[in-house]
Amino acid sequence: xxxxxxxxxxxxxxxxxxxxxxxxxxxxxxxxxxxxxxxxxxxxxxxxxxxxxxxxxxxxxxxxxxxxxxxxxxxxxxxxxxxxxxxxxxxxxxxxxxxxxxxxxxxxxxxxxxxxxxxxxxxxxxxxxxxxxxxxxxxxxxxxxxxxxxxxxxxxxxxxxxxxxxxxxxxxxxxxxxxxxxxxxxxxxxxxxxxxxxxxxxxxxxxxxxxxxxxxxxxxxxxxxxxxxxxxxxxxxxxxxxxxxxxxxxxxxxxxxxxxxxxxxxxxxxxxxxxxxxxxxxxxxxxxxxxxxxxxxxxxxxxxxxxxxxxxxxxxxxxxxxxxxxxxxxxxxxxxxxxxxxxxxxxxxxxxxxxxxxxxxxxxxxxxxxxxxxxxxxxxxxxxxxxxxxxxxxxxxxxxxxxxxxxxxxxxxxxxxxxxxxxxxxxxxxxxxxxxxxxxxxxxxxxxxxxxxxxxxxxxxxxxxxxxxxxxxxxxxxxxxxxxxxxxxxxxxxxxxxxxxxxxxxxxxxxxxxxxxxxxxxxxxxxxxxxxxxxxxxxxxxxxxxxxxxxxxxxxxxxxxxxxxxxxxxxxxxxxxxxxxxxxxxxxxxxxxxxxxxxxxxxxxxxxxxxxxxxxxxxxxxxxxxxxxxxxxxxxxxxxxxxxxxxxxxxxxxxxxxxxxxxxxxxxxxxxxxxxxxxxxxxxxxxxxxxxxxxxxxxxxxxxxxxxxxxxxxxxxxxxxxxxxxxxxxxxxxxxxxxxxxxxxxxxx
Length: 749
Known about the structure:
749 residues, alpha+beta, Rossmann fold, Phenylalanyl-tRNA Synthetase, Chain B, domain 1, three-stranded antiparallel beta sheet, 26 helices, 39% helix, globular
C-alpha cells in the first residue's frame, strides 16, 4: 500500500507527455544512466516487478488512453476551425448583437439590482452605466425592437466601434464618429440601415446561402430543387424564377418559347447535319440539354454563360442528364466525362465567355439569344459569323418598351417612334425584326422571317440568314414607316421611295383628316413591312412538334399556319411534310426527300445543287399570297347598343364577302383580313343585332345600304359636332379673358 501511494503521488506531478510510453522510451535512450527523480519514477512504473507494480501499470495505461482521446478531440476541433477559416469568412462565434431572446441580451450586461452596468452594445460615451430598470428599457427599445429577425435569431443594432465612419474635422480637432450598424449572421458583414440589412439577408436566402452553407464547404443539396421539362431534369436554386435574385434563372412560363425554338432547330437539323448550335445565355442549360437529348448526334450543342455559378449549374445539370461535358473557359479546354455507359455519346460544350465574344470567335449554324431584356446589344455579333442559310432566333422580354408602355425606351433601344394601338403586339414584332434587319444588313446579310410570335411575356423572332449584298438590300427596302390614324385606327405603310409627298394623309383609306379638325395621323416606325410567317417552315415545325410530342406548341403552330395562309381552314395533315421535291421558303427553294430512303442533307454552301436562290423568283411571288399586315379587334370596332355576332360566324361573313380572313395569335379577339376598315365595320354592323332583341341574336338584322350609310354618317357627324363644341368652348373662354364682358375684369373695375 505504501508503494502504491508513492506511485500515485509521483504520477500527480507528471505531465501527459511524461506518461506516454513512447516518450519514456525516447528519454531512456537519450539518458540511459537515468539522472534524477523522473528517471527513477519511470523505471519504477515501466519495469517494476510485483503485484503493486502491475496495478500501477494498468492505471497508467487507462490514463494514457484518456489523454490520447482528449488530444484527438482537441486536434479535430483545431482542424474544424481551420476548415471554417479556409472555406468561408463565417466567424467562429456569432457577434454579441445576435441573440435569440431579450433575456440573453440582458445576461451579457450582467444586470444586478443594486449595481450600475453599461450597455454591452453601446460605448460608454454614448450610454453611461445605469441601474437595472433603465438598462432593461434601453436594451428593449433601442436594440431589440429595431432588430432584424432571421431563423429565430435577432440581429440587434450595434453602436460599438465595429463600423468606423469617416472622421469629421472641426478646427484642429478630429472627431471619429462611430456609426450604428447591424452584423450579418451569414457573412458577418456590417450594414448601417435596417432596410438594407433586410435586403441583404433576402439576397442570401434567394441564392441558397444560409448559415449552414458557411459552416460546411459544399452547398446543401436539399436547397436545390429538381424540375423536369420535356424529359430533361434541371437543378435550380431557390427563387429560380426571379432573375434579379438568382444567378441561374429558370422561368417555367417560357416552356412554350423553348418548344418553338426546339421545333425550329429540328427543322434545320433535317436540312443538314450535323449543325453547330449555340445557346448564348444558358442560365440552367435547360434549352441546350433538350437539344442534345432529343436531336442526338445531328447537333453539336454549345451552352454559354458569363456567370461562374451558372456555368457550374450547367455542368451539374449535364451530369444529372448523363451527358458528357467539355468545359472551355477562356481558351483553356478541360474535358470531363461522366460515366462510360453504353449509348452515352452526347457531348455538350460549356463555355464561360461573354456572348459577344464567343459569337465573334466562332461560327454557328443556329444561334439563340435570350438575354434579360432587349437583345439589340448582341445582334451585330450574332450576324458576324453565322453561316449561310443558318437561323438566328431571339427572345425579347423588354415588353414594357415594345408594347408602348415606355415609349422613350423603345426610341432609345430600337430607334422607333410608337404609340399604344390595338395591334401593339404585332407592332412589337415588326420593331424587333426591323432591328434585326438593320444589324444583318451591316454585315452584308439579308434575312427571311420564318416566325414571329408576340405573347404576354416575350416576343420571339426566328429568321433565316442569306449571305450577300443583294439579299441585304432587298431586306433593307422592306423597312418603312407606318401611317396610323388616331381617330379610326386605320393604318397603311408609306409608299416606297424617297420623294416627299405634299399630303401624306391621302395614303390613308379613311377621310378622317377631311372631316376632323387638326392632325389626325401619326408616323410610326421604322418598321418591318414584309411577311411575318413562312407557311412551309411552319408546317414542318408542326410536324416536328407532333413527332416529339410537344403538346403545348401544336395549337399555336396550327393557328400560325392559318394566319400565314390567311384562311380559316383547320384541316392539317400531321404526316411528313417532305412530300414535294421542292419547297419554297421566302424565295429559297429547298430540295427535300420523297421517301425515307432518300436523305438529302443540305450542307449550307452558297453554290449547292440542292439550294437555288434567285432574285427573280423572289420578285415573282405574288403579293396576294402574303398575309395582310396587322389585324382589327372586333370589340374595338363594335357598335354601341348592338350585339356582335360570334367571332367564327363573323369570319365566315367576311369570307363570303370575298375577303381573305383568319384569326391571329396576337389577339384572341383579333381578325386578320384583307378588307379595309370601312368594309369591316359595314359587315360588322350588318350582322349585329340590337341589344333589346336578345332572343333574336341568332337572326341578324339585314339593314339596307342607305340605313347603313346614314348610321355611319350620323356617327361621324356626332364626333365632329363634339369636337366643334369643344373648340368653340375653348375659344369662347379665351376670348372672354380679353374682353370687358368678363366678370373678373368687371369686378376689378
